[in-house]
Amino acid sequence: MKGFVLFLVCFSCFRHGFSSTDPRDVSALNSVSNQWRNTPPSWKNPDPCDQWEGVNCSNSRVIELKPFNMDIKGSLSSDIGNLSELQELDLSYNPNLEGPLPTSIGNLKQLRILRLINCKFSGVIPDEVGTLPNLQILSLNKNQFVGPIPPSLGQLSNLTWLDLAENRLNGTIPTAENEAPGLDLLVKTLHFHLNKNELSGNIPSGFFSSNLVAIHILLDHNNLSGGIPESIGLVKTLEVLRLDNNSLNGIVPTSISNLTNLHVLNLANNKLQQMPNLTGMQELYSLDLSNNSFDSSEAPAWFSDLQNLRTLIVESGNLHGEIPETLFAYPYLQEVRLNNNQFNGTLNMGSNTGQNLSMVNFQNNNFTSVTLSTSYNNTIILEGNPVCSNPRLETTEYCNQQQDGNRVPDSTGRCSRPYEGMLLCRAPSFSGNDIPGNLPSMRDRMTARLSGIPVTYQIPGFSFDEDNYLRVELQICSSEARYFTRNETLHWFDFTSQNLNLDRRIYGPCYFDPQIYDYGNKVNRGLIIGIAVGGAAALLVIAGLSTYALWQKKRARKAIILANPFATWGSNGEEDGDAPQIKLARYFSLDDLRKLTNGFSEDNAIGSGGYGQVYKGMLSDGQLVAIKRSRKGSMQGGLEFKTEIEMLSRVHHKNLVDLVGFCFEKGERTLVYEYIPNGTLTENLSGKRGLQLDWKKRLSIALDSARGLAYLHELAKPTIIHRDVKSSNILLDENFTAKVADFGLSMLVLDAERDHVSTGVKGTLGYLDPEYFMTQQLTAKSDVYSFGVVLLELITGRLPIVEGKYVVREVRMALDVQEEVFYGLRDIIDPALLQNTRYLVGFKRFVGVALLCLEESSASRPTMNDVAKEIEIILKECEPKPKENYSTSALPAAYFGIARDGPNPTSDDFAGGSGLNSGAGYDGDEYLLSAR
Questions:
Q1: For residue range 612-656, what is the model confidence (pLDDT) as tens digits?
Q2: What is the pTM of this model?
Q3: 755 belongs to the catalytic site
Q4: Catalytic residue of the set 22, 90, 592, 724
Q5: Can you tell me the distance from the alpha carbon of 257 to that of 360, in angstroms, rounded to the nearest whole number?
Q6: CA-derived radius of gyration, the chain
Q7: CA nearest to 208, candidates 179, 178, 241, 180
Q8: Topology classification of domain 681-930
């Protein structure tokens, strides 16, 4: 017995004698890794400190756990709290790492850095995070955290970097009250990145103080209200301040001019009421004050005072008078966007125009003449000004120029195995028109950062997105044209915000968001060839014997597939749940589809998207079909394929695209639809197909689409909610009959007694119902909201979000129901409709229906069936008979109240004081007007 005990002791010593990792940390790491899938292969070894990629140790204790961008899947075990000496935890860029952040994180008292960027962590941020005394960097951005910001974060007295952006955090910004902690106590913090959340309430005055040394404060894209505190002027270290895209109101405090180190100021898309005084802010590089509620005023004096300005944007600023010529002489000025104001007189861009000025946009002002320097050869947009009525100008590029998209290609090369991703800079000091001019600084820093590493890099493209964030594509390639190893990427490409070392004056706060890298555990090609040659003789010997067996097996397998085409569902790990349950849909083999498409020839390709390619084919009976083939790794996953095939096989309506059949074979997920020859509504509205949709056609398309959705909501059993209603999912056949398509995100309401489904938010930006986004309760009224956006597209001919402008907001702000012809929307209406305005019958009534669909509360929106009835009435009015009243509205008159800034229009504004249409007639300008 003593010998056995001695053996166990010796065995234990032997086992740990070769391990440099403390047994406590080994146990904790094993527990953590057991909750994860797809961990690096090295993690199968027994000694983490010596062998695990992403683990670094000191004195046998784990001090760094940073397996970022390893495509790890699973959740974070509470045993993470047992790594008591851990100083850095970086699990960033593992987008399948999900679940709550365990409260045991508070046990990591040595932790200095906590980065969980671009994962799927959810739930509330634990209060225990605020008990980490040594924490310096906290980056939880781009997750799914909800709830309020924990006030306990105010206890992090050593914190220099706080990034909680792009979550779903709500509530107010916590500040110290009654001796409770709050963010105002973080006086050493340089970066407050709280943007793109759902924060509400006032910005606390106590948030700002003279002790605060912050350089970047990002609060944009929230729901903040109230005024900007006077105390903002105390933070004289500030370099970037973004408060745009909130609901801030009142007057910008005069103290803001104390921020003499400020490089970027963005107050756009709020409800501010007076143009601020920015005199003395000589370091200001980029300024955006667009789309507020400013009182009418002339160009402010400080227009001629900000000598270092690169970008000046005051769109829809209610400005009038003349523009000072000195504005264009700024030596560094790159872009001026003062469109949609009332500037008048002469636009004088004389000989002193700065050499760096690349774009001037004065669209929709009142200039009657223009003086240009002969040396200025760059973009100037004057469309919508009286000067463009001059026959010599009306056909020039000045009066007919549309702004191009701002994505600019750079280098054209591409290596075969790049480590790539996106550099996101959230407050650059320059404009989209001068990205190339500001890239050399980034290149110099990147070259220095990669010096001594055997790699090359390139920047294939760059652009500004709808949030005015700079997106720079980055590819890093091995000089030896090989795959990178995990250790190389961990040590070479740890591009956090700090060690990118970009010039913050130019780019503001940036971070790198890499794509999941395929580490390519490839078998040596020479070995494959050797094995193949060596085995060729044996294969020849047995080939004859096996041919007959294989033929028989193929016949049997084909019979099984015909009987149950989804017999292999879920076998490759890419399909979720049970196999699809389908009715009346034809099965196509992969060979069938190859014959129909001539081997998936490019000549047969008719479209493409995130899911893959669409091909045109013809069945043996002459029917034309569209074949939607999902490519590997596409957005069209197994769940979406299953949903669409089940939905379309159970519903049939003339305004829904018919499913002809499908293919599920050898990894193929392909759907076969009826062919719709005239493409999407998006394409037709944009003019890509060379056709113009007149008013009556647009009404007919709206009615067809509404009827298709009404069928899904009210006649399909169980109810179907489409969840991705948008113009690109409405197809037009040869007669321009509209058909609703793409059911990959659709949901069934199985419980007849419930009117909603609680589910994660899915849909398309610009069409998404804000109530659904906030509550995660999906209702049929969510489709109604999306359809309201489509109705505005039919009116305006533009996509929901263009250059950061949301069409719903633009229409509401411009709406003037007292203006008889276009109701204040003339500048927003699709120019194609204005070519024959006398036929815009029912225009006012149609606008009312659209805005009613867009009510913030789903309870205030009509049903899709009511919308269809209302549009049908409008369509019938397109051929009015003299002295005849029209039918009663399908919607109550009270439905036509419209929410906007200022007093709401009454039902009289849209219903003539009753629920009846009082007829139509010609006014003095021979516009055909409808009472609605």
A1: 788 998 888 888 888 888 766 444 556 677 777 777 777 788 899
A2: 0.56
A3: no
A4: 724
A5: 26
A6: 31
A7: 241
A8: Transferase(Phosphotransferase); domain 1 (1.10.510)
